[in-house]
Every structure is written in C-alpha cells, then in structure tokens.
Amino acid sequence: MDAAGRKASGQIGRLVVVGLGLIGGSLALGLKAASGCREVIGVARRQQTCEQAVALGVVDRAVTEIAQVLPELEAGDVVFVAVPTLSVESVFAQLKDQLPAGVTVTDGASVKGSVIAAAENVWGEVPEFLVPGHPIAGSEQSGVTAARDDLYIAHRIILTPLENTASEYVQRIERMWQAVGAEVLSMPVVEHDEVLAATSHLPHVIAFGLVDTLAHDAENENIFRYAAGGFRDFTRIASSDPVMWRDIMLANRDAILKSIDLYTSNLGSLRSAIASGDSEHLMGVFTRAKAARDHFTKMLAKKAYTETMEAKEVTFVAQPGGAVNGDLRVPGDKSMSHRSIMLGSLAEGVTEVEGFLEGEDALATLQSFRDMGVVIEGPVNGRVTIHGVGVHGLQAPPGPLYVGNSGTSMRLLAGLLAGQQFDTVLTGDESLTKRPMNRVANPLREMGAVVETAEEGRPPLKIRGGSALKAIDYTLPMASAQVKSCVLLAGLYADGETSTTEPAPTRDHTERMLSGFGYDVRRDGPRASLQGGGKLAACHIDVPADISSATFFMVAASIAPGSDVLLRHVGINPTRDGAINILRAMGADITLENTREVGGEPVADIRVRYAPLKGIKIPEDQVPLAIDEFPAIFVAASCAEGETVLTGAEELRVKESDRIQAMADGLKVLGVDAEPTRDGIVIQGKGGSDQPAVFGGGEVDSLGDHRIAMSFAVAALRAGADIRIKHCANVATSFPNFAELAQGAGMNLEVR
Ligand SMILES: O=C(O)C1=C[C@@H](OP(=O)(O)O)[C@@H](O)[C@H](O)C1
Ligand SMILES: C=C(OP(=O)(O)O)C(=O)O
C-alpha cells in the first residue's frame, strides 16, 4: 500500500511515544511518513534524547515527563509505551487517573504476561483501553539514532488483547500498525510468551552466554582474531541492549527456563555423541536442522514449500504459438522417488538414490521419514543418502505428519504406519483433505489396524499403533497402485502371506523396488503377494525421468508443427506407458531410442516429432496405464481431427481435482466442444480445420491441480491468443522446473 492509501485507512489522532529508542522512534517515523497521525509527541527521560529526537525529525516535539502532555490528549489519540519491559509499570502508574477518556494505550514489550501483571498492579484490572502488543522487528541496534521509517514494513505485530479489551481500541491499534506497513495478528498471552521464549529469548541467552564465555577465556585475543563469519552471524544479537534483555529474562522467567532446559538436554546429547563418535546421531541432528532451517529461509523468501504452498499465488500466462525442440531431461519419477525414501528408510544399511524428484510431493515423504527419526542426507542435485533404520526402527514423530498435496504419500504411508508401535496422524492440504481414504482405511481395518478418518473417509487419518496385523487376500475394487502398495506395505508387518489382486494392471514400482531391496514378492498375473516379517537390504536406486512429466512435452511436440524433441532417460515401465500407446494410436510420431534396463526398470530416450493427430476411442485397458496423463491427452485430442472418446476413467474424478470436470470446463472456455460423462469425456477435435489456432484465448482455472495447469500451458502452442492459467503453484509438487524447461524448449510461458 502506498503512503496515501495507508493514510486513508490508518489515521489516528496524536501519537505519544514513551521511550525514544529503535522501536518507539521507528513507529514515530513510519507514521509520520505515512501521514498516519496528526502529530507525534515524544517522551524521554533525558532532555538530550528529546532534543536529538526533534532534531532528527523523529517527533514533532518532545517532553521529559508524560504528565506534561496528558492534559491535552483526547479520544482517538494513542500512547505507545516503548520502554524496557520492567519499566512499563512505572509508565502505567503515571497514566493512572490522568489519561483522558477514549485514549488508547499500547506497548511494544517482548513479554506480555508481565505487562498484564503491571496493568493489574496499577489499575486493579486490565483496562479496556489497553491493547498489549509486540512488534517482531527488533534488531541488535538500539537508540533513537537507529530509528527508521521502514522498520515495520512486512513485519509482524502480535497483539494479545484480553476479553475485556474493547474492540474499538484494538481496531485503532491494528490500523495504526497497518499504516506503517506491518502485518497484524493476535494470540493469547501465554502462547505469545512461550513462542517468544523459544524463538527469541533463548537465542539471546545463548548468544550473550557464548560471547561472554569466549571473552573470559585466557586465549580470547586469539579467539576473536580468528572468529570469522560463523561466529559473527551467530552472535550478532549479543550486541543488543543489555537492560532490555535483562528485563525480558526476568519478566518471562518460567517460559525461558523451559526452553533452556530443553536445549540443555539436547546439547548434552550432542556432547555425548561427539564424545563417543556417534556419527549417526550427529548426522540426524544436523540433517534435520538443515532441512528445518532451509524450509524457514524459503518461508521468509515467500517461496513454495509444503506448508506455505497454498498461500502462494502463481499464474501462468502462456502466449500463443511456437514449437518445442531440443534435448531435455525432465525430473525424476514421482512414484519411484516416494518409494525409494520409504523402502530405503526401512532397509538395513545405507541406500543411495540418484535422480530423486525434488518436488514438493516427494519432499513431503522425505520429511515424514525425517520426522520419524530416519537420517536422510540431501537431496542435492537429485542425490539422496538414506541411513536405513530397519523394518522396526521408525520412531514416533513429534506431531502429525503433513504430506501436503500428495495422495501417494498419504496412502502408502497409511499402510506402513498401520504396522508401527506408535500412533500417528496424517494430514494434508485443502485438495488432499477432499480425497477418499476409505479405499486404504478399509483393507487396513480388515488386517486388524485401527484407522480413523474424518467424515466420509476424508483425511486426516489417525492410525493407532501397536495393532497386530494379520495377512489378508485382498481383491481391489478399483485399479489403484496406491491401494495395492498400501496393502503390500502393511503386509511387511502382518503375520502370514498378504496378497492383492487388481482388476487391471497398475504401476508395479512397489513390487519391483521391494525385489530390488531383496524382499521376496511373488507375482502371478493380477496377483502380488509377500510374506510378513522379512528384511530389506539397502541398495542403489537410479530413478529415471518421470514419464508423466515427459508426457507434457510428448503432447507439445505432437501438436506444434516444426517440433522435434528428445526426452532423455525416461522410465517406460509397461504399467506406465499408456500415454505413448494412446498418442501413437492417434498418429503421433514417437520413437524409443537406446532402450535399456536400469535398476530393474525399463528406460529409453523418447523422440517425438510433430505429426497430425486423429481422434480415437481410447481402449479401456490403457486407462490405468496413463491415469495421470489424461489432462495432457485431452489437449492432444482437442488438436486432433475427429472425435476422441474416453470411458472407464472415473478415477480421474478423485485426483488433485476432478480432472474430467476441470479439463472440460477449461477446454470449453477455450472454445473446444468437450462433454464430460460419468466415467470419461467426449472431445470434438478441431485439428481438421485450416486454422492453426485450435484454442481461443482466455482464463482457465487449474484448481490448484499441477497436471491441469501444465496441460493448459501446452495448449497455448495451438492457441490464437494468451491463455491465463490460475492457481499454478502446485506445479512444484511434481515438476518444479516445468516453466524453465518449457521456455528453453520454445514455449512462450510467463510465470506471474
Ligand atoms: O502409486 C502411485 O505412485 C500413484 C498411483 C496413481 O494413483 P491411484 O493409485 O489412485 O490410481 C497415480 O495417479 C498417482 O499419481 C501415483
Ligand atoms: C494423482 C497424482 O498424485 P497423488 O495421488 O500422489 O496426489 C498425480 O500426480 O497426478
């Protein structure tokens, strides 16, 4: 918001700032810059500070006693108490009985419990005009000379109003902070003090303590001479104002002691690990901490990551025309990446993975196993090292396992977790929370697991530990590799032989990878079975490029005249190659080169050249083999000559979106006749016309579904005007570098 906008919404009367340091001075400057108040009056004990504040333009005038200004205040004015925590009470005492009605009092202390106690001591109860607050914007600098008018922009202000705080006062303070560009949120007092003890007060104790320890060391001259970046970064906050921090320690004693005790015990474990050379323990702590800190940096940079992904709004604007050319390698296979982490974690020994998909879905699985105590190094350029803990080595996670947008994570993990001794809760994002989970909960219950779901079998899933699982012979009601894998993974923990029978072939990566880890899986047509109670041995996994991601470029090359792409090292497992078969049946020019086997999975380089397509009736036996590729295939069908009919694909309705409806809606917006049916779609291809443009321009909604988003981006190659695609952040779940690769290959795609 610009200054004029803030002024309109944020005007208060006069602002009285008691305490002219960094925090008070910066609010004064910010509010003046935004014309957010009529006048700023400063109050500081020392005359020199008053003069300095006026000379610097921080305040309009300044006095040494608050009593000097109280008589002239009136309703709508605000008093901001920005003195060290333990001095707040004496300021309140000076306000008592002299504050005119309608004036709001707020403060900026780091501890809220002590401010509440100070108010009770002075007024007997917390008055309705007091709005306790805490701007999270301090730095190691202090004093009025450090004040800046932009200190609060994009910073958070926590307000902790009590039940009897009147809402008009709270609203005034919210508007005041918003006027200087801050984001205001509220929290109960106790929660505020505990959160701040852990995130701010403890780090200050450690920084002050560490610098003091080293400064007392006889060798200190040398220590400080050689202490470079790490020491400087880590101890910056030991330059903070000692009085302010002494006050905070005393005021928030109990919460800080709790944090110190927790930290001391962890430091003790680290000490023992170093003493005994326990490298596993050290790697566990360091890899978990690195992941947490990297995640935090991404959150601060407002980049996509599992928990913040939905908050980020990404729009694709795909410009019409172009062709795709070049030699590309799309990221690693998502299904195999998930399974490599799961089986590597349960194996004995160290599993090395290459080609791992660094997309949000596979990272959510990885984080879940870290949360269950597995040491996992990486990913770095697709390389992951998993220190397996054995089939019975997982530990209870500290909280619910959050798997974001990933159905595969939730359904496969459900099977594994049913066999553990500890309870777990699996949660996900808004899209995943709408997807059916009874398809896994029911067979797990038949095995003796205790699994609770929310209404109508939706997530979260609560899985009780300690159940003795018994083997079952399960006939799947739908063709689903996730359900099959869930049952087989639970079967590792069951007494006896667990088997699954599927109505049609589905991806068999679980069966293949289990065999790769030395676990005996018997396969007989539609039936797969394994005996519980075995062991997995660590191995090396080379994850090929994901055929589901490659499909976007297969379709792109097939519909855009002048295209010729080579897609390297793509997995062409016969349970995944439906898109190749369907596109070829439509007339696509696809050749497989350098076909080979890598780690038990067939792999090839796929060459695709433009060729005119024709509509077909898609054979139902191909549906499970191309289940994730249909959104892209519908784009190909729109560019084909004649009608394409899909049946037997009702499963598409329960993916990240209802993919039949979402694609039909978007295609209609772009001028294609696409009629959804119960279990499929009928598309009238427009490829036979003389017009190069099959699609009109327009705005379509991907509904947060990565595959819908990428499919409409590809459609632009044959569009007559821009296609704007809303809600594309989730492309990062399966294909984080889609836009870069697409642009490099010749598509005109802009990410906003
Ligand atoms: O097992 C797997 O890795 C997957 C199976 C498929 O789901 P269903 O089992 O629900 O068909 C697929 O859609 C999903 O992207 C990945
Ligand atoms: C359906 C998909 O994934 P999941 O079920 O793992 O969310 C997909 O990637 O298209």
Automatic annotation (TrEMBL):
Q: Which Pfam families match?
A: EPSP_synthase, PDH_C, PDH_N
Recorded GO CC terms: cytoplasm
Q: Where are the catalytic residues?
A: 628 (proton acceptor)
One Gene Ontology BP term is:
tyrosine biosynthetic process
Hydrolase among keywords: no
- Family matches, as PROSITE patterns: EPSP_SYNTHASE_1, EPSP_SYNTHASE_2, PDH_ADH
Q: What SUPFAM superfamilies would the database entry show?
A: 6-phosphogluconate dehydrogenase C-terminal domain-like (SSF48179), EPT/RTPC-like (SSF55205), NAD(P)-binding Rossmann-fold domains (SSF51735)
Question: What chemistry does it catalyse, as a reaction equation?
Answer: 3-phosphoshikimate + phosphoenolpyruvate = 5-O-(1-carboxyvinyl)-3-phosphoshikimate + phosphate; prephenate + NAD(+) = 3-(4-hydroxyphenyl)pyruvate + CO2 + NADH
Q: Identify which top EC class this enzyme belongs to.
A: transferase
Write the Enzyme Commission number(s) for this entry: 2.5.1.19
State the Gene Ontology terms under molecular function: 3-phosphoshikimate 1-carboxyvinyltransferase activity; NAD+ binding; prephenate dehydrogenase (NAD+) activity; prephenate dehydrogenase (NADP+) activity
Recite the UniProt keywords alphabetically.
Amino-acid biosynthesis, Aromatic amino acid biosynthesis, Cytoplasm, Membrane, NAD, Oxidoreductase, Transferase, Transmembrane, Transmembrane helix, Tyrosine biosynthesis
Q: Highest taxon of the source?
A: Bacteria
According to its UniProt record, in which pathway does this protein act? Metabolic intermediate biosynthesis; chorismate biosynthesis; chorismate from D-erythrose 4-phosphate and phosphoenolpyruvate: step 6/7; Amino-acid biosynthesis; L-tyrosine biosynthesis; (4-hydroxyphenyl)pyruvate from prephenate (NAD(+) route): step 1/1
Q: Where does phosphoenolpyruvate bind?
A: 334, 407, 435, 482, 659, 707
Span-the-membrane segments of this chain are 12-31
Does the UniProt entry include the keyword Transcription? Answer: no
Question: Record's Gene3D superfamilies?
Answer: 6-phosphogluconate dehydrogenase C-terminal like domain (1.10.3660.10), Enolpyruvate transferase domain (3.65.10.10), NAD(P)-binding Rossmann-like Domain (3.40.50.720)
Q: What HAMAP family does the record tag this protein with?
A: EPSP_synth
Q: What family is this?
A: Belongs to the EPSP synthase family. Belongs to the prephenate/arogenate dehydrogenase family.
- Please state what the protein is called: 3-phosphoshikimate 1-carboxyvinyltransferase
Species of provenance: Microbulbifer agarilyticus
